[in-house]
Every structure is written in structure tokens, then in C-alpha cells.
Design brief:
This protein is α/β, with parallel strands linked by helices. It has six helices and seven strands; from the N terminus they run E-H-E-H-E-H-E-H-E-H-E-H-E. Helix 2 (45-52) links the parallel strand 2 (34-38) and strand 3. The two termini are 30 Å apart.
């Protein structure tokens, strides 16, 4: 997928692997200027990309800290006066370093894991939106967060995965609420929650054995599909929860 480049940069969080890395590569191939953030960008595949692309700028940011989203926004403000697109890809489902995995039973729910899930999956995107709003108000722009269908309350028939489900449900509500306010304060801004489908990334790796091969998507393919939806999206769709095909999902 190629198109003309945006007039202002694209900011991508969680850009060092998976969907975030694929989106970074795609936008660079389109000729876009990309600001890519991760916890350790210089020791990730982003470093090699930056050596080949003068339009790629790397920012180190830990979005799980209280100051992380605002610090990323401050660094972004130093680099540009506007943004064309923000895509929040940073997220967590499991973490062996934290003894964290999706809960199958209520007894497995740990408050520290629930809090950590909310910090990265829900709080980081909305706090970043809060800090970046001045860069998104004065020209057409898009703010998108990678959500998940398991965050749908209506579609929850299996239970389990308390931390991930609830943090993604919170993310959806936060994006919806942000979109309502943006209609008044930033009418050219489109706010979306996006479900990418099950993607072959480290996040889904422990659970792929249960996924039919035709429903396990490559990060590059998902990046193309999501970018197509973002390119087509209009402010009238702001506040939507969409899948990679552009179909509305139940809240």
C-alpha cells in the first residue's frame, strides 16, 4: 500500500514489534515522517530502520509510568507543531517478567496485574490524547488506539481474561468519550478504537495453537488493513469501534 505522504508526522507507540513495527514500516514506505516510541528503541528493530530512513525519529518512552505519556507528548511537541495521525499500539496481555498471564479463573486475578493492564492498555492512550490535543486540533488528524474484540461487553460469552478484557473495555469507553468531546473542540479529529484480529505477534504467541491458520494474520497484512481503514475514516465515524474490515463491533 502506498499513497502520498502526510503533511505532518505520524506518531506510533509500541513501535518496536508486532503491529506497531509493521505500521512504522508501512508509513515510512509511503513517505510519511514517523515518530516511533518504545521503551528501548535503540536496542530494537527500530534502530536498523532509523539507520536507513531519515524520516524516522525514535523516542524512548515508558507509558506505564505516571509521567510516561506526558513525557512522550513533550518530546513530540519539541519535534513538530502538528500531527497527522497517532496510533497507540502499546499493550499487554501477558508478561513472564511479571508472572502475568490471562486469568482463567477469578482466583487467578491479581490486583497488581489488573492495575498494570489498565495503565498500559487504557490509561496510556487517553493520557497521551490529553497531552497531544493541541497538536491535533487545528488540522485534519486521526487518533486511533488498538483495542480488541474481547473488550466488547456485549460479545463476552466465554469469560476469563479479566485484566485484558476489562482494560480494553475501558479503552473503548475512553476513546468514545474522547470522540464526543473532540466533536466540539477538534471537529477535524477522528477518534477510533480498532480491532486488528488475531495477529502473529509475541502478544498472541502463547495462544495461537487454538487459532485456525486462516484467522491468524501477519503483522504486515494487518498494518495494511488498518491503514486502509484509517485512510478512509472521516470525522463522522469518530467514536467508532471497528475491525480490520471497517465493520462496527458491539460495545
Amino acid at each position: 500500500m502506498t499513497s502520498s505522504s502526510f503533511p505532518y508526522p505520524v506518531l506510533i507507540t509500541g513501535a518496536s514489534s508486532g503491529i506497531g513495527l509493521a505500521l512504522t514500516r508501512l508509513h515510512l514506505a509511503r513517505g510519511d515522517r514517523v515518530i516511533a516510541s518504545s521503551r528501548q528503541p535503540d536496542s530494537s528493530p527500530l534502530a536498523a530502520l532509523a539507520s536507513r530512513h531519515d524520516k524516522l525519529e525514535l523516542v524512548e518512552a515508558d507509558l506505564t509510568t505516571n509521567r510516561g505519556p506526558a513525557a512522550l507528548a513533550d518530546e513530540t511537541v519539541r519535534r513538530t507543531e502538528h500531527l497527522s495521525r497517532v496510533i497507540c499500539c502499546a499493550g499487554v496481555l501477558h508478561d513472564t517478567n511479571r508472572n502475568m498471564s490471562p486469568e482463567k479463573r477469578l482466583e487467578e486475578l491479581l490486583p497488581e496485574n489488573l492495575e498494570y493492564s489498565f495503565r498500559l492498555n487504557a490509561l496510556a492512550p487517553i493520557l497521551l490524547a490529553q497531552a497531544l490535543l493541541p497538536l491535533l486540533r487545528r488540522q485534519p488528524a486521526t487518533f486511533a488506539a488498538i483495542s480488541a474484540r474481547v473488550g466488547s461487553i456485549t460479545d463476552n460469552h466465554l469469560g476469563g481474561w479479566y485484566s485484558y478484557r476489562s482494560s480494553k473495555a475501558a479503552l473503548n469507553q475512553l476513546m468514545r468519550t474522547f470522540a464526543v468531546e473532540a466533536r466540539r473542540r477538534a471537529p477535524n479529529l477522528t477518534v477510533l478504537a480498532l480491532h486488528p484480529g488475531t495477529t502473529d505477534t509475541p502478544l498472541s504467541a502463547p495462544f495461537q495453537s487454538r487459532v485456525p491458520q486462516e484467522k491468524l494474520f501477519s503483522p504486515d497484512w494487518v498494518a495494511e488493513q488498518l491503514t486502509e481503514q484509517l485512510d478512509k475514516a472521516t470525522p463522522e465515524q469518530s467514536g467508532s469501534f471497528l475491525n480490520w474490515r471497517g465493520e462496527s463491533l458491539p460495545w
